[in-house]
TrEMBL record:
Pfam families: RLL (PF10036). This is RNA transcription, translation and transport factor protein. Belongs to the RTRAF family. PANTHER family: CLE (PTHR15924). InterPro entries: RTRAF (IPR019265). It comes from the Eukaryota.
C-alpha cells in the first residue's frame, strides 16, 4: 500500500535514522504530495542507499539494516551482552518446539484467530476453541495437503450406465420422461452416497478429537 509505505519511511527517519534535522523533514513527511517520490529519491541519495526507488523490497531491507545499526550505535552498552532468547537455556528451546503446551485458550487473540480460521474453512463453531483448533488441524491434514489437493483435482471418469437395467418403479406414460426420471433417480442416489461419506468423515473427525488422550479441555492445555 503506497500510503503505508510512505508512512513507514517517515517513521524510520523520525524515530530511528534521523539523518535530516527536524525542520528539514517536511517534504518527506508530506506523504500526500505528488512530489513525494522526488523527495524520497533525494533522501535515498542523502543516506547513500545503493538501490533505486523502484527496488522497494531491497530499499526497505537496506533502510531497516541502517536503522538497526544506528539503534545499536546509540545503545551499544545495552545490546552488547544480549544473547538470543533461544540460547539462554534448553527449556526455552523445548518451549519453542512445543508452542501448544502452555497455550492460553482464553487469550482473545487466540480466540479471534481460531474463529477466523473456522469461518474461512467453514467449520462448525464450538464453545471450546481448543476443539475448534483440533478440527481445523484435522481438516488441513486431510483436505489441504498437497497430496489431498492433487487427489481431489484428478478428473473422475464415469462408468456407462444401462438405464434399462434400472427399474423406475412407476410409469409416466412417456418413454422420454421415464428415461429422464431414471437419470434423476440415479443422480439422487449418487448425492446421497456423497452425503453419507461426508457424514462418516465428520464422525471420524469428532472421534479423533474426543479420543485424543493428550487433550484436556478442562485445563485448556495440550500435551500434559
Amino acid at each position: 500500500d503506497e500510503t503505508e509505505f510512505r508512512n513507514f519511511i517517515v517513521w524510520l527517519e523520525d524515530q530511528k535514522i534521523r539523518h535530516y534535522k527536524i525542520e528539514d523533514r517536511g517534504n518527506l513527511r508530506n506523504i500526500h504530495s505528488d512530489d513525494w517520490p522526488k523527495s524520497f529519491e533525494k533522501y535515498m541519495k542523502d543516506v547513500n542507499c545503493p538501490f533505486k526507488i523502484q527496488e522497494r523490497q531491497e530499499t526497505v531491507d537496506w533502510l531497516l539494516g541502517l536503522a538497526v545499526r544506528l539503534e545499536y550505535g546509540d545503545n551499544a552498552d545495552k545490546y552488547k551482552d544480549s544473547t538470543p532468547d533461544g540460547g539462554k537455556n534448553t527449556d526455552n528451546t523445548a518451549k519453542n518446539a512445543e508452542p501448544l503446551i502452555n497455550l492460553d485458550v482464553n487469550n482473545p487473540d487466540f480466540k479471534a484467530g481460531v474463529m477466523a480460521l473456522a469461518n474461512l474453512l467453514q467449520i462448525q463453531r464450538h464453545d471450546d476453541y481448543l476443539v475448534m483448533l483440533k478440527a481445523i488441524r484435522i481438516l488441513v491434514q486431510e483436505r489441504l495437503t498437497q497430496d489431498a489437493i492433487a487427489k481431489a483435482s484428478q478428473s473422475k471418469e464415469g462408468l456407462p450406465v444401462a438405464l434399462e437395467k434400472h427399474i423406475l418403479g412407476f410409469d409416466t406414460g412417456d418413454a422420454v420422461l421415464n428415461e429422464a426420471a431414471q437419470i434423476l433417480r440415479l443422480l439422487h442416489i449418487e448425492e446421497l452416497r456423497e452425503l453419507q461419506t461426508k457424514i462418516n468423515e465428520a464422525i471420524v473427525a469428532v472421534q479423533a478429537i474426543i479420543a485424543d488422550p493428550k487433550t484436556d479441555h478442562r485445563l485448556g492445555k495440550v500435551g500434559r
